[in-house]
């Protein structure tokens, strides 16, 4: 090489190695976790997020906060991915997972300062996570997961979140009813429960619609606003004068020719209208345009028509009513019709909605969320969405565990007991894992105005004597008791996923000792 230096990376690249790289990554991960920590629990605080365009989001949902934050640091992005994974897999516990991941990093940083190798920390964390999963299994309640427990799961999920003028208890009944509606022999069809928001009324007007809600209005103001026991035709047809693809001009030399052209056009339009009317359909859904003359004729016949319906909404209607999409009007037969108990068109200020209820093939229900402002309905939508997810998870698994920090106390206690039998420095990492889990009860205590250290000591003592202890919030009162007796429960899978995803993210970050960034 003649003594000349060899450049492997671009001159603009930045490289951070060793302890500096570990410290930078851990600090970034801890910062993200700290951003959501104060939102945890029934007394958690909200965050206001304002983007560059001035759009405002007010929420205490961990996944939403992390998604809205403009995070660039790659290690911090891993904590965001923890929340995303938690949200996708079980629908709730995103804040818990993120906070645990951040504290696992904090404990790892202390161990690194004590010259414990990163590989030892990773091995210890994975062993502790395995013990934690066993501890969760031991905390699973003996009672069968019935509607009452499902309501407790929903209520526990929504307590402390923005639910407008509604109580979590009243919303829980709606959530459980919705999930029960889509329960099948193969499990819960969670995707068949949708949430539709509409501002302009109190959140007390929130209701469950046994069907679907779409943003559509009748094609003619003279059409009926509601049709009972509806026969529904779904068309991919333009109900109007056909136009060619080639530009053409026709020379008309006389009034008779003009009248003949007008009569031909009227005859064509009339033919469309009569074909639809004679088919026996009460409601027509078409993905294309409807000529005003056709709309007027069908309105006079008492037929309700929705035009230019989007592909997604059309598929939902077909799914709910059992209709067959028809591509040519001549092919329309009664066998192609779908059926619904009721289809209605409702006006909400500047918005028009169509309700398709009780379809013959109805597998979908809609939680129709009302609220006075956009911020209220958005937060209510997030709260209900999380509740639907955890209820579906609990119903499918049939396993719930105590909430209010009790499960984390039990996990930490079991890990500390098992740590005594682990040799070498790995024991330090296992114990540190238990210490990291203490962040959940400590944060719950701090967010309710309690002293975190005193509350943690009391919780541990109650756990030792009673076998189960959590921080129960009832209005302004905060007591230590059995969460299962107080109806504060979580799906076991939420805890399992939080431990697993937090451990994976923390160990991945701890193992990084070299960061190479291109400018």
UniProtKB/TrEMBL annotation:
Tell me where the signal peptide lies: none
Q: What ranges does the record give for the region Disordered, renumbered to this chain?
A: 1-25
Q: Which family does it belong to?
A: Belongs to the TCP-1 chaperonin family.
Give the keywords, sorted: ATP-binding, Chaperone, Nucleotide-binding
Q: What is this protein called?
A: Chaperonin Cpn60/TCP-1
Which species does the entry assign this protein to? Natrialba hulunbeirensis JCM 10989
Q: Which domain of life is it from?
A: Archaea
Q: Name one GO molecular function term.
A: unfolded protein binding
Q: Which Gene3D superfamilies match?
A: GroEL, GroEL-like equatorial domain, TCP-1-like chaperonin intermediate domain
- High-level lineage: Archaea, Methanobacteriati, Methanobacteriota, Stenosarchaea group, Halobacteria
């Amino acid at each position: 090489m003649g003594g000349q230096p060899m450049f492997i990376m671009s001159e603009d690249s930045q490289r951070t190695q060793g302890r500096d790289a570990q410290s930078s990554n851990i600090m970034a991960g801890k910062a993200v976790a700290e951003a959501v920590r104060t939102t945890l629990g029934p007394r958690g605080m909200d965050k206001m997020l304002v983007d560059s365009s001035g759009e405002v989001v007010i929420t205490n949902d961990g996944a939403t906060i992390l998604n809205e934050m403009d995070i660039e640091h790659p290690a911090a992005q891993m904590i965001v991915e923890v929340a995303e994974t938690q949200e996708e897999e079980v629908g709730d516990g995103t804040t818990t997972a993120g906070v645990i991941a951040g504290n696992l990093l904090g404990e790892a940083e202390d161990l690194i300062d004590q010259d414990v190798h990163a590989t030892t920390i990773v091995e210890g964390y994975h062993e502790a996570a395995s013990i934690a999963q066993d501890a969760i299994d031991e905390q699973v309640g003996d009672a069968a997961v019935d509607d009452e427990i499902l309501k407790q799961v929903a209520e526990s999920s929504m307590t402390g979140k923005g639910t407008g003028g509604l109580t979590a208890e009243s919303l829980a009944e709606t959530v459980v009813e919705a999930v029960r509606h889509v329960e099948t022999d193969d499990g819960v069809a969670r995707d068949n429960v949708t949430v539709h928001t509409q501002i302009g009324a109190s959140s007390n007007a929130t209701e469950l619609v046994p069907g679907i809600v779409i943003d559509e209005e009748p094609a003619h103001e003279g059409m009926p606003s509601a049709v009972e026991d509806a026969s529904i035709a779904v068309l991919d047809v333009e109900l109007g004068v056909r136009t060619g693809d080639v530009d053409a001009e026709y020379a008309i030399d006389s009034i008779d020719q003009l009248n003949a052209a007008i009569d031909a056009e009227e005859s064509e339009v009339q033919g469309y209208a009569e074909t639809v009317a004679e088919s026996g359909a009460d409601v027509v859904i078409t993905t294309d345009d409807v000529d005003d003359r056709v709309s007027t004729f069908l309105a006079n016949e008492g037929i309700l028509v929705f035009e230019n319906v989007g592909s997604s909404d059309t598929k939902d209607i077909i799914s709910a009513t059992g209709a067959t999409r028809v591509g040519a009007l001549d092919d329309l037969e009664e066998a192609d019709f779908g059926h619904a108990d009721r289809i209605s068109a409702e006006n909400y200020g500047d918005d028009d909605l169509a309700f398709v209820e009780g379809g013959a093939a109805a597998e979908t229900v809609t939680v129709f969320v009302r609220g006075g402002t956009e911020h209220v309905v958005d937060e209510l939508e997030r709260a209900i969405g999380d509740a639907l997810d955890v209820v579906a998870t609990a119903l499918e698994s049939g396993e719930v565990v105590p909430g209010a920090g009790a499960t984390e106390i039990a996990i930490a206690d079991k890990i500390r007991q098992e740590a005594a039998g682990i040799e070498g420095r790995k024991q330090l990492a296992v114990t540190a894992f238990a210490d990291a889990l203490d962040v959940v009860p400590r944060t719950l205590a701090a967010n309710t105005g309690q002293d975190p250290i005193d509350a943690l000591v009391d919780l541990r003592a109650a756990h030792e004597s009673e076998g189960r202890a959590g921080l129960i919030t009832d209005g302004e009162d905060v007591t230590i008791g059995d969460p299962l007796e107080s109806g504060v429960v979580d799906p076991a899978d939420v805890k399992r996923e939080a431990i697993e995803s937090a451990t994976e993210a923390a160990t991945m970050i701890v193992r990084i000792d070299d960061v190479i960034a291109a400018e």
